[in-house]
Amino acid sequence: MTVHLKKLSVGSASLASLREWQAARLAAGMELIHLTRNTPRRAREVLDGGSIFWVIKGVMCARQPITELRAMQRADGRPACGIVLAPSLIAVEPLQVRIFQGWRYLESKDAPADTPARASTSDAMPIEMEAELRELGLL
Known about the structure:
The chain is α+β, with helices and mostly antiparallel strands. It has one domain. Strands 1, 2, 3, 4, 5, 6 and 7 form a seven-stranded mixed sheet that branches. Strand 4 and strand 5 form a beta hairpin. The longest helix is centred in the N-terminal third of the chain and has 13 residues. The protein starts with a strand and ends with a helix.
């Protein structure tokens, strides 16, 4: 059974800024790897089609498929886990969440659905507003 991870996108001001940052890394020939201290204990479930769901400013707004969990080392030599991500960043229905540290498991039944691609991002309302309106049942 598939399980996902949810993670704060520290330093991202918006989904657009996360896209730009990742595009720059890919253009430089780098892999998209999120380094974390702990390897997920449910690694088999995560690798069975799991994604990392990014939380920006308290709103879960995108997901990114996880392709590999790689044993790595931090700069100080301590062991770490590299969560290797596919280059596709998929917008999801905005969902407000409480802030947390590290990453958390996210069951598939609790994961927000993917949103269709928007024709124009300039006409779109801010993700935070859309999440709040959904929570109030207005969208």
